[in-house]
Amino acid sequence: MPLGGRASAGNLPYELTSFVGRRREIAEVRRLLSVSRLVTLTGVGGVGKTRLALRVAADSSRVFDDGVWLVGLGELPDPDAVVDAVLSALNVREGRGGPPQALLVEYLTARKVLLVLDNCEHLVDQVANLAIALLRACPELRILATSREPLGIGGEAVLRVPPLTMPEPDQRSTAGGGLGHYEAVNLFAERAASLVPGFAVTEDNQDVVAAICRRLDGLPLAIELAAVRLRAMSVEQLLQRLTNRFGLLTSGSRGAPARQQTLQWCIDWSHELCTPAERELWGRLAVFSGSFELDAVEGICTDPVAAEQVVDLVGSLIDKSILIRDVDATGAVRYRMLETLRDYGTERLQETGEFGSLLRRHRDWYEQVVLRAESDWVSSRQVAWIVRLDAEQPNILAALQFCLIGPSEADAGVRMAAALYPYWRVRGRLREGMRWLAQLLAVQDGAPSVERIRALYVLSVLSGLHGDPEASALYAERGGAVAERLGDRTAAALMDDATGHHALITGDYATACECFESSIAVFRQDGNLLYLIWSLLGLATASDAAGNRTRSEECRREVVALTESRGESVYRGWALWGLGVASWERGEHSPAKKLIAQVLQLARSGDDRISFGGCLEVLSWIAVEEGAPRRAATLMGAAEALAETVGVPSTMYPNLTAVHERVEQTARRAIGDRAFEVEFRRGIGMRFEDAAAYALDENDRVGVSAGSDPSSLTRRELQVAELVAEGLTNKAIADRLVISQRTAQGHVEHILAKLGFTSRTQIAAWIIEQRQGRQS
C-alpha cells in the first residue's frame, strides 16, 4: 500500500520499512501546515526529514482534493530546471506556449494541492523564488519542503527535525525492558530484528542498546547502518567499536557540528568495514543519479576482469545498507543509494582521480541506452522502452549535463538528445527537449554533420508543436542549409519533413503535402522505417486538412500495417485514431467506436495520454450523435482534464476545434446548460484510470457514472453530502450536525466509497443532479 495505507491522488512512494516514532513532530508539522502555507523541515543529513515529510503528507492526503505530490530535487543537476521538475512530478506536460512558471501557476491556481519539495538545500534561491510566486497566485496551495537550511522567505514556518528520543546517559532502565517509549531504541530494535531473527531488547542487553543509541546521537541513518553490523557481532562488540571510532572522529574536524561528526563517523565506519572491492564499487556507484540497473553497474563501474564479481559485490552492499533494492512496475530490479551515502562515495571517488573518466563512461553507457531505444522504437518492446526511459531520466539528464562541458563532449549529447525525440514526443516533454537541444547545439563546434541536422529537425518540429512557428521555420531553414552543404539525401529528406510540419501548423496544407510526399519517397527507398512513419503520419494529417481524405487514409493504413506487424503501439494508435475520425465523418459510428477503442487500449498500455485525450474527444462526438448527450458531456470533461495534465488540447489537429464547438452546442441544447455543466464537471473530476474504464464501458460504477444510486446512502450520509455540496469543511459539517470532526470525516469517506467518487467536487456535482431530478 502507499504511505498512509490508502490509494489517493498524488505520487507518494510506497513504504518499504516501518515508520517509528515522531508523534510529536508529526502533530507539530500538521499544526504548522494548518496555519502556514509553507512549512520547511530542516536538520542535519540523515536525521529523517524526508521520511517525516512523507508521513505527514500521506496522513494529510484527504485534506487535499487534488492530491499530494512529491518533487525530488536532490538529483536535479540544473538549477534552472526546478519548475520543470515540479511540472514533471505533477504530470503537467508541455504543448502550449508561454513561460513554464506561468503554465505551473495556471495549473495550480484553482487546485487544492500539497507539494512536497524534497532536498532543496542546493537550490534554495530557485526554490524560494518559485515558492513565493506559487503561494501568491495559488490560494489553495500548501508547500512542505525539506532542506538543510530554511528557504528564508516571508510566511515560512520552520521546524528543525531533532534526533530520535533516547535515554539520558545517567538514566537507568527499569526491569522488564522499560525503554520502549524511546524512539531510537525502538528503531534499533525493529531494524535489528528484521536482520537477525529473534533479536529483542531484553533486561540483559537494554543498557547496552541504550548506550549504542546515545553514541549514535539518535540519528536514524546512523542507527540503521549500525544495526546491520549485528549480523557479524554482538551488541557488546558493536558498542565497543563505536567507542573506539568516536575517539578517532573527535580528533578530526573540530569545527563541524557534533551531529555532522557523528554521521560522518557512521559512514566512515561503514566504509572501513567494507572490503577493498566493496569500497571501490561504492565510490564508483556514486556516478549514478537516481536508480540504476545491474547491467549499468557492470558496464560502467567494473573492469572486464572483475565483472564476474559484480553480483556478489552488489549483494554485499545491499546487506550493508549501502544500496537499496527496488522493483519497478515491470518487475525489473533497480538499485539506489541514499543521497548522504552517494555524496560520501563521490568524495571517495574524487580522491582516486578517476571521477572524470567514470563520468564519461556513464555518459557513453546512457548514450547507448538512448540510441538502442530509438532503434528499437518500432517494435513490441516500445512500451518497455518508455518505462525504462522514465526510470532512467535522472541518469540521462546527468549524461546530457556532462556533454555541456565543451565541444569535445557535445557531439554525443546532440546524438542523445535527437534520439530522445520519440520519447519526448509521446511523453509531452516538448520544452525539455527544446532546451537540451538548444544548449547542446550552442556548445557544439557547428561543423556540418548528420547528427546536427537531426537535432535541428527535432528542434524545428518540437518548436512547431509548442506553438512557435517562427522558431520552427528558423531551425528548418538552418537544417536545410546544413543538409545542402553535406550533400546527404536522407538528411535533406528529413529537413523536407521538418518543412512539412512547419507548413502544417501554419495552415499551408498544399506545401505540407508536397514536402511530406518528397520525404516519403526517399525514406521508402532508403528503408528508414522510423522516418517513413513520421512522414506518413504528417502527410495523413496534411492531406486530411487539405480535403484529400483518400490519401490521408492510405497513409494511415500503411502506418497501421508497418506497425502492427512489429507490435508497435504509439504510432499505430495515432494512425487508428485518424481512421476512427474518418469513419465518424462518414457516419459509420460502430466502426469508429471499435477503432477508437483499439486506440484507447494501446494508449492506456503505453500511458500515452495525448492520444487518450483525443480518443475521449471523438467518443464524445459519437455519443451526441447516438443520443447520449450526458455521456458526451462527461467525456468532454474528462478530455479537458487530461488536456490540462499533458499540456496539449484534445483538439490540437486542424479543423477539430470547430467540430468540438458544434458538438458541444448540440449536447447543450439537448440537456440544457446546467445539466451539461454538471456532467462536464463530473468528467473533470475523473482520475485517468476511471476515465479509461468509463470510456471503454468496463465498469458500470466508475467514479462519476451517472447511475450512482442515492438509496445506497444512509439518511445521515445524505445530510453530509448536502453539506459537502454547500462547500462546508469536515469541521463545519461537524459543527452543523453536532458530531465529532472524525465522525464527519468518516461519513465523507463512506460517501466517496459508496458512490465510487474520488473527490468532494464529484459529491457536489452529484447532489446538484439529484436536486434537478427531483425538480423535474
From TrEMBL:
SUPFAM superfamilies, per the entry: C-terminal effector domain of the bipartite response regulators, P-loop containing nucleoside triphosphate hydrolases, TPR-like
Positions of the HTH luxR-type domain: 706-771
One matching Pfam family: NB-ARC
InterPro entries recorded: HTH_77, NB-ARC, P-loop_NTPase, Sig_transdc_resp-reg_C-effctor, TPR-like_helical_dom_sf, Tscrpt_reg_LuxR_C, WH-like_DNA-bd_sf
Gene3D superfamilies, A to Z: P-loop containing nucleotide triphosphate hydrolases (3.40.50.300), Tetratricopeptide repeat domain (1.25.40.10), Winged helix-like DNA-binding domain superfamily/Winged helix DNA-binding domain (1.10.10.10)
CDD domains the record matches: LuxR_C_like
Name this polypeptide is given: Putative LuxR family transcriptional regulator
Superkingdom of origin: Bacteria
Biological processes annotated in GO: regulation of DNA-templated transcription
Molecular-function GO terms, alphabetical: ADP binding; DNA binding
